[in-house]
Every structure is written in structure tokens, then in C-alpha cells.
Design brief:
By secondary structure, the chain is of the alpha/beta class. It folds into three domains: 190 residues, FAD/NAD(P)-binding domain (3-Layer(bba) Sandwich), CATH 3.50.50; 133 residues, FAD/NAD(P)-binding domain (3-Layer(bba) Sandwich); 94 residues, Immunoglobulin-like, CATH 2.60.40. It has eight helices and 27 strands. α1 crosses α7. The chain is globular, with a radius of gyration of 22 Å. The N and C termini lie far apart (65 Å).
Length: 421
């Protein structure tokens, strides 16, 4: 049995940032658990640039971004275990881990930070009919094969779904000499960042077929092609619009799922919209002393946002360990209003609101020339004009803590201004 003040489950960008921030706030006995062979998480296979523009004010690749935090972690002498799987977290913060060298071990923690990230939705979750040949895989799996293991996964590629990993892999496969036939997207708009549509598809003349889906997979030993079809307004295939597209590789980029099996085992309440934990202003879950941050909480579009959010979790976990976090007091609910799918955090305890209150959210559709409106108890306190709002791009709104403390009685709501009738 080991004893630590804080155990961080996950050594990706969220876990690294949280651990470093906890150390910066006066907690020394910290342990980071990482199941992969090295720290850095998904960033290690993201060799493209575009990371760090907000945190470091410069453009880095994924491994470069991760390296800065890994070096900082080592400089601060924060303990970590790689090739180690956390297999259970109990409500009383007993963490069970397993690795080849030590077998099964138990760690007693004063606080736990959940930073397990997310996984890709696979073929079984989207029910594409057809055979099961080689050549069908998630875009993230292909990214690891190509960028880290040195294997080319195919020569003729179709990508289903326009998530950011799929868009980035469209460009990557083209750069490696593959013929990328098309991206197929069920929605009338992209599920990825606008910059990735431009830089990964338009710059390489890769077409994207909106309002289309894949209805069949053909091939026995190896994929020979897919059958695509147009969809109606309810995303159902339209009979008679089927078209066969030959390919030997199908990459799936159809959504990400927060890795919350450990959270559920610990009794953490989950949000049915995000798939992640319900948290307060401190990034603390419904179980006292267990915190969550990063993609295990809600799927982010920029790693810089993951870092900012995770620093908050690390800071508040340290405050909890030192007995500085108020567990009682006035609780204000934070609600998703008209046009907003979700808002994180889900509620705020006013007695703990020392710094600005930062709200993260996604909208439910595309909106042009609209205002994001924040209301406290039904009265508008902040309006932010947005030229374009998209479900694929996360929004942030910051509130002055004095404004919230002075006015809040029952709820804070974020909504998109309604159409003028």
C-alpha cells in the first residue's frame, strides 16, 4: 500500500498540467499514472504543428508541446509510473494499479485527478453493414501506425466522418503518397475545426461529401470499396442514391468518447450530453476529493484549452488537500440555454470563487452574426458578438467573480440570442 497526497490518472496533456500545477501550489507527494510506454498521451503521435499558440505563443508539434511539460514534471521531481494501468478508483480514493514489474498495487490518495482522455468511436458503434476485411480502422489508430510505428496503412483511402483526427489523417495519407478519394460526412457541416478543413482538405484538393453516409463495406480478406449514399434531414440513407467507391482503406473519424469507466466505478455522476463528469468551479466531481479535467471531462478542440482547464483542477486539488476548499455554501447552477448543447462547469460554489469564472461550451448548430448571452438569474450580464458559431468549435466566456458574487442567487444561463420575429 502506497500513500500519496494526489494521484493523477493519465499522463497526457491534462494529467501533466494538473500535476505540475498541484506541485506549484504546495503539494509534494504526487504520483502520475500512465498506461502507455511514455508520458505525453495522444500528443506523441500528433506530429503536425498548431499546438501551443495560446499557452506558449508559438506553434509547436504535439511531441514538442508534450516535451515541455514532461521536462517540467521531471524538473519538479514529480513521481510517475509508465506502462501502468489504473484498474479501479474507489469513492474513498483508493487507486488500484497494475504493471508487469510490480503486479497489482494499491495507492491511498487524499485527492484524485481523473485525466484519462477519450477514445475513438469504432465501427461497432455506428452499425455499418458488410463484411469485416482488413483495412478498416479508426483515424487515430492509423495515425499511430504511420507516425509512431512506421507502417503505411493503405494506398486508396476513404475517410468517414470529418472529425479533426480524420481531417489531419487525410492530409497525412496524401503526404505519404496515398490517393485520398474523399471524406464522407453525414451532417451538412464539418465536425472539425475550420482551419483543418482549409489546411488538410482544400489545400490538397481532397473533396468532402456532406449529407452522405456509408451504407456498405465490400471485400473479403482486404477492403475493396465502400458504398456511400445521400441522407435525408434525419440522417437516414435515401434509396436510389447509392454509389460504390473503390478503396483499400477506410478510416473512421466519427466521434470521441470520454474514458469514464474509472469515474463510474468511483461513483462519479456523469453528464449525458458530454459523457464526462459533472463538475463544479474547482473541477471537482460529485465525489468529494475526486477531480476531472481534459478530454475525460468533455472533448476539447485545442490542447491549450485542456492545459488551462487542467491547471485549474491541479490548483484546486492542492487546495483540497490543504483544507482550503469550501465544501458547503451557496451553490449556483450553470445551465445551457437556447442554442447551447452544454456548459462546463455545471455549478459553482460562491465561497470558492476566488478567480474569474471561465465557462466552456458548445452550440447545437451553425449560427452567423449572433451574440452569446450570459444571464444571472434571468438578467443579462455579458454579451459577446460572434461572427460564426459552430458545434465543432468550443467557445469560452469569462466572468468577473465580483459580478457573479454580487448578483447570483440561483442560476447562471448561457444562450444564443434568439431570432427577431
Amino acid at each position: 500500500m502506497y500513500d500519496f497526497d494526489i494521484v493523477v490518472v493519465g499522463g497526457g496533456p491534462a494529467g501533466l498540467a494538473a500535476a505540475i500545477e498541484a506541485k506549484n501550489n504546495g503539494v509534494d507527494r504526487i504520483l502520475v499514472i500512465e498506461r502507455d510506454r511514455e508520458l505525453g498521451g495522444i500528443l506523441q503521435q500528433c506530429i503536425h504543428n498548431g499546438f501551443g499558440l495560446q499557452i506558449f505563443k508559438e506553434e509547436l508539434t504535439g511531441p514538442e508541446y508534450a516535451e515541455r511539460f514532461i521536462l517540467e514534471l521531471q524538473k519538479k521531481e514529480i513521481m510517475y509510473k509508465t506502462d501502468t494501468m489504473a484498474i479501479h478508483v474507489s469513492p474513498d480514493k483508493l487507486v488500484t494499479i497494475m504493471n508487469a514489474a510490480e503486479g497489482i498495487s494499491h495507492i491511498r490518495a487524499k485527492a484524485v485527478i481523473l485525466a484519462m482522455g477519450c477514445r475513438e468511436r469504432a465501427r461497432g458503434a455506428i452499425n455499418i453493414s458488410g463484411t469485416r476485411p482488413a483495412g478498416v480502422m479508426t483515424a487515430g489508430a492509423a495515425q499511430r501506425f504511420v507516425n509512431m510505428e512506421g507502417y503505411m496503412v493503405g494506398k486508396e483511402v476513404v475517410i468517414f466522418g470529418s472529425g479533426d483526427i480524420g481531417l489531419i489523417m487525410a492530409r497525412r495519407m496524401a503526404l505519404e503518397g496515398a490517393a485520398v478519394k474523399m471524406v464522407v460526412e453525414r451532417k451538412p457541416y464539418s465536425a472539425g475545426l475550420t482551419r483543418n478543413i482549409v489546411q488538410c482538405l482544400e489545400d490538397y484538393d481532397i473533396p468532402i461529401n456532406y449529407t452522405h453516409t456509408i451504407v456498405g463495406i465490400k471485400g473479403r480478406e482486404r477492403l475493396e470499396g465502400v458504398v456511400i449514399s445521400k441522407v435525408d434531414s434525419k440522417k437516414r440513407p435515401i434509396a436510389g442514391t447509392e454509389e460504390f467507391v473503390s478503396c483499400d482503406t477506410l478510416l473512421l473519424s466519427v466521434g470521441l468518447i470520454p474514458e469514464n469507466e474509472l469515474s463510474e466505478a468511483a461513483g462519479v455522476k456523469l453528464d449525458p450530453v458530454t459523457g464526462g463528469a459533472v463538475v463544479n468551479e474547482a473541477m471537482e466531481t460529485s465525489v468529494e476529493g475526486i477531480f476531472a479535467c481534459g478530454n475525460v471531462l468533455h472533448v476539447h478542440d485545442l490542447v491549450d484549452y485542456v492545459t488551462l482547464e487542467s491547471r485549474k483542477a491541479g490548483k484546486n486539488a492542492a487546495r483540497y488537500v490543504k483544507g482550503l476548499l469550501e465544501g458547503e455554501g451557496t451553490i449556483i447552477e450553470i445551465r445551457a440555454g437556447s442554442g447551447i448543447r452544454y456548459v462546463v462547469p455545471h455549478f459553482v460554489r460562491l465561497e470558492n470563487l476566488k478567480d474569474e469564472l471561465e465557462l466552456y461550451m458548445r452550440c447545437d448548430d451553425i449560427y452567423n452574426d449572433k451574440k452569446l448571452i450570459v444571464k444571472i438569474d434571468g438578467k443579462s450580464v455579458k454579451e459577446v458578438y460572434k461572427r460564426r458559431l459552430m458545434p465543432s468549435e468550443m467557445e469560452r466566456v469569462k466572468l468577473d467573480p465580483k459580478e457573479v458574487l454580487r448578483k447570483a442567487k440561483g442560476s447562471i444561463t448561457v444562450e444564443i440570442e434568439k431570432e427577431v420575429q
